[in-house]
Design brief:
Shape: globular
Order of helices and strands: HHHHHHHHHHHHH
Number of helices: 13
Distance between the termini: 32 Å
Helix content: 55-70%
Structural class: mainly alpha
Strand content: under 5%
Radius of gyration: 22 Å
Length: 320
């Protein structure tokens, strides 16, 4: 899913420069699989390289956040006003505060798309076997991840809703006249023909930021960071499951390689499954599919923790 998100952003960037190999969907598949191969190479080398890569990606993500918040305080030019960026405004924030779903979208459809973006909070727990003190690291890391994620998403959403309108035509003449939607048409279902505004363009954060390309780089970094975390954690969980020997015929996947017992066979299996998901090439379709799996996973995790706590299992000695 995250690799497809990276590939989509890359294809959109290259197509804007007139660069493309085949059609949009096949380009997404090609770039997605190439990125996955590179991430697999980093993973197979070992956790040390994976950790270094994650630190670099984290630095890029932090820089993109800072760049976005700085840009939101810069007075917009006429060209940015034409795209719906009006600067901080209480009226704009009030108008954007409540939902206005369009094109048949609902709260649940938006939830299905957004929910996978919150699943990184389990990254630390998924590699518990590599932690020095899991009983302390997992609760601290998970709660910290939840706090940072909630603050980041809410801060970005509130800033965007305070500085940009829902619809804008992109016409400077409309912006100078004080009505960004003069050249727009509106359909009965609420959707508009406007190309800009937070309801129409995925590039609004780029336009709001001080330096647009830094946001694009941050999107790449966030997508690749999440993809790398999943590519590391899923095989390790599967290896642990195989070591427990609960299910027949899968014990061969428990074999570890190197000093740290890296699950390379599980890496290859995960790679094959990921290639199949990338072949779908439609991010919205993938997010709905992935959301169902994650919701089921979290339900089972919550039940397992509840049951282990209730039975006072020695292995549930987690404390902050």
């Amino acid at each position: 899913m995250n690799t497809v998100g990276f590939a989509e952003a890359l294809v959109d960037l290259l197509s804007g420069c007139g660069i493309g190999m085949t059609d949009r969907w096949n380009d997404i598949r090609i770039y997605g699989i190439l990125a996955l191969i590179i991430l697999l190479g980093i993973t197979v080398v070992g956790m040390e390289w994976e950790a270094r890569t994650q630190l670099v990606l984290l630095g890029v993500i932090i820089a993109s956040f800072i760049n976005f918040f700085i840009g939101s305080f810069i007075p917009p030019s006429d060209s940015k006003r034409a795209k719906g960026i009006v600067g901080f405004s209480a009226d704009t924030f009030t108008n954007n505060f409540f939902p206005a779903f369009r094109g048949g979208e609902t709260f649940m459809s938006m939830f299905g798309i957004f929910f996978p973006a919150c699943t990184g909070i389990m990254a630390g727990a998924n590699i518990s076997g590599d932690l020095k003190n899991p009983s302390k690291a997992i609760p601290k890391g998970t709660l910290s991840a939840i706090a940072v994620s909630v603050f980041s998403y809410l801060a970005c959403a509130m800033v965007v809703s305070a500085v940009a309108v829902r619809d804008a035509s992109g016409s400077i003449a409309d912006a100078v006249a004080g009505n960004q939607t003069t050249a727009c048409g509106f359909h009965p279902n609420g959707s508009s023909t406007c190309e800009w505004g937070i309801s129409n363009s995925y590039g609004m954060m780029t336009e709001i930021s001080a330096v647009g390309p830094i946001i694009t780089t941050g999107v790449f970094a966030a997508s690749l960071s999440s993809a790398l975390a999943c590519l590391v954690s899923a095989p390790k969980i599967f290896q642990a499951l195989c070591l427990d020997n609960i299910f027949p015929y899968i014990h061969v996947m428990a074999r570890g390689y190197g000093k740290s017992g890296e699950p390379r066979l599980a890496y290859l299996l995960t790679f094959a499954i990921a290639c199949g998901i990338i072949a779908i090439a439609d991010l919205n379709t993938i997010t709905f599919l992935v959301s169902n799996f994650f919701i089921g996973t979290y339900a089972v995790i919550n039940y397992a923790c509840f049951d282990a706590s209730l039975s006072e299992s020695p292995g549930m000695d987690y404390h902050i």
